[in-house]
Amino acid sequence: MDNRVPIGVSVWPRPGVANDVANMIELVALARSTGLRSVWFGQRMDLDSLVLAGVVAQAVGEIGVGTSVVPINPRHPVVVASQAQTVQATSGGRFRLGLGLGSPALESAAFGIHEDRPVARLREYLTALRSLIEEGGADLAGERVHARPPLPTTVHGGANVPLLVAALGPQALRVSGELADGVIPNLAGPRTLSSHIVPRFERARPAWPIRAAQIVAGVTAVVTDRPEEVRARAAESMAFYESVPSYRAVLNREGVEYAADLALIGDEEYVTRGLRRYIDAGATELLITQTDLGGPDDQLRTWRLLAELSA
């Protein structure tokens, strides 16, 4: 594949294992052995993505680790800055912090919270987080975020944490362009990337950014000889996206009805062609998700292809 870009994969424990964390370490070691460049950990309500990133980075060397993504509403930026710097120091500089606006329905049910001005919170959150990590403190008393720690927030060896945001909407993209280092949009097809995400993010970037822009496109992909069977699993696992307004807007823009219509499921040639479209659309990196939909053998087959295609 011409114009190669780095490719990473999201990793989650396999069902029925005795120890989820031990299994994650094994899977990441396997990913590294295939030649993959990075692994990403989602945030659910069992395993913690930031803790997991630190543990895995300590156990498995020479592979990048990242979160995709940590919701900003339940965690204060002082706490996240401390966690992120700790992971960065543990990893020796291989960590990237992916943040997200979160799911209102899930957060209301789990925490009893509802953020009615998510973009305003995102702006204040990123402002505080950058200051906490890069300047060792913050002095922010905003409408949505208060961050005035009375003690230093510097972790030696933990600086230089790239901040990425799972931004899809115009306002979130503008704030991310101004204050973050990149975006990590999931389920944003090539049309959405080229016409919506990349131009809006780039327009908002400062004239002299601290780091090069990172556009990490999340794509569901599986290399398999059983495409219909795996696609049926994808349709079931991805159906919830179809009722989320921001994702529904993406599906409409892509001209598809179902989230699984954007999944790349087929042989090596089919998946390679599909991934090339994301690169042509402006992605600087690919994050391949749900590679386990077809089982361990298909997952390893997928990882091997991705390693061959990766820069």
From TrEMBL:
GO terms, molecular function: oxidoreductase activity
SUPFAM superfamilies: Bacterial luciferase-like
Keyword Transmembrane among UniProt keywords: no
EC number: 1.-.-.-
InterPro entries, per the entry: F420-G6PD/mer, Lucif-like_OxRdtase_MSMEG_4879, Luciferase-like_dom, Luciferase-like_sf
Domain Luciferase-like: from-to ranges: 12-281
PANTHER family membership: 5,10-METHYLENETETRAHYDROMETHANOPTERIN REDUCTASE, PTHR43244
Protein name (Swiss-Prot/TrEMBL): TIGR03564 family F420-dependent LLM class oxidoreductase
